[in-house]
Amino acid sequence: MSIQRRHFLKTIAGAGVLGVTPRCLQAQERVTRATCGMPAPRIKDISVIECQPAGVRLTVVKITTDQDGLYGYGCATFTQRADLVKPAAEKYLKPFLLNHTTDRIEDIWQSCYDSSYWKNGPVLNNALSGIDQALWDIKGRQAGMPVYQLAGGKCREAADTYTHADGAEFQEVIDNAKRYMEQGFRNVRVQVGVPGMAGYGARRSGISPKALHNKPLFEPAYYMRRALKLLEVCREQLGDEVELLHDMHERLLPNQAVQFCKDAEKFKMFFLEDPLSPEDLGYFRQIRQNCATPIAMGELFNSPHEWQPLIAERLIDYIRVHVSQAGGFTPARKIAILAEQYGVRTAWHGPGDVSPVGHMANVTLDLVSYNFGIQEYSPFNERTQEIFHGCPEMKDGYLWVSEQPGWGIEIDEKAAAKAPFVSGPDNLNGGWGEIRKRDGTVIKQ
Ligand code: MG
């Protein structure tokens, strides 16, 4: 019998003498196995859990190991093409990884990343994120520690957040913002509807102007003037004590975006988000040359070729990647560290199209990264919490990480099965429709 095996059996026997419960014993056994040099767990199964508890399709990868009760979860949510992520994980990554040990996360990430030859696409990156985050969850459960401890521990107690205050009219936005401020939020994203048009982040009102089509309508110049007026009204009525954010959602032409950022400078924003689309990154230099408005960018990014130049040239202030779209916790941690070297702070994408496992990965990054900026927050409804036990907790505008091992989240798979994907009347399977200008030109969503 090896020395490690003797040490292992002695420790387990000791736990039994102390009269601990079977569940504690199982956890103790995992920690002891990990610390006594026992063979690492091996991947026995990879499955995908899909559910839609709050109107948005959520996808989570589950890795089951050959050790009793040891498994992990990872967020793989790409809600607009959700049905494609499951086969990417189960038909390609599962056979590639079966019987691999779980202990080499970086090595597994790199080998999976290379295994498709063509890479950096949203479907493959989300499947990879599911694997990556599930492996971190397993490592945390083995160690008996939350993932934030494995990444070096906390830089702060909790993550400061912003939430969404919207409305069809200015007054409705103001009223909602005040309500959130009374709840303790110090930062609010403000969005107002554009009458008769499909504005982003707020419901529409009024009758659509005449157009050469019957699709949702949007005119960038009109939105630009209305949104700037909203920022003026918000600063006047909400005062200087609140931080204001606004998502331009890449709806403007590049030269309009430069003008918008310049005109918004006087409102002293926390940040303006996504002034440009990933196709127009070259215009960030013009924004920088024209104003000091803080800029957040990156929720649509999938490739290092997109975020590296913006960070290295200090063209943005906040990197706003959707963690699963970049491939998971492992690459996101590297983005945070790269950004820290250039004075860029983090603002991970965190609306409803992130599963609670993904939100826990976000808040873990928030707490371990010195250059944390702010965290976008979306509440978890009751149905979501019936499926995902242990969602990050919100108190007074701060988001708190779990202190349980791994991500600290357990998924009730029976409850998830009762909230399946729902196809809407458009039969787009979660995909988005189209928005067009008056003359019929399609525009970016
Ligand atoms: Mg956005």
Radius of gyration: 23 Å
> In CATH, what is the class of the domain at 159-411?
Alpha Beta
Q: Report the end-to-end length measured between terminal Cα atoms.
A: 63 Å
Could you say what the CATH architecture of the domain at 159-411 is? Alpha-Beta Barrel
Q: Give me the count of strands.
A: 15
Blueprint of the fold:
Blueprint: H1 3-17, H2 22-35, E1 43-51, E2 58-65, E3 71-75, H3 82-97, H4 105-115, H5 122-143, H6 147-150, E4 159-167, H7 170-182, E5 187-192, H8 220-238, E6 243-247, H9 254-264, E7 271-273, H10 284-290, E8 295-297, H11 304-312, E9 318-319, H12 329-341, E10 345-346, H13 356-368, E11 375-376, H14 382-387, E12 388-389, E13 393-395, E14 398-400, E15 410-411, H15 413-417
Parallel strand pairs: 4-5, 4-11, 5-6, 6-7, 7-8, 8-9, 9-10
Antiparallel strand pairs: 1-2, 2-3, 4-14, 12-15, 13-14
Bound molecules: magnesium ion (MG).
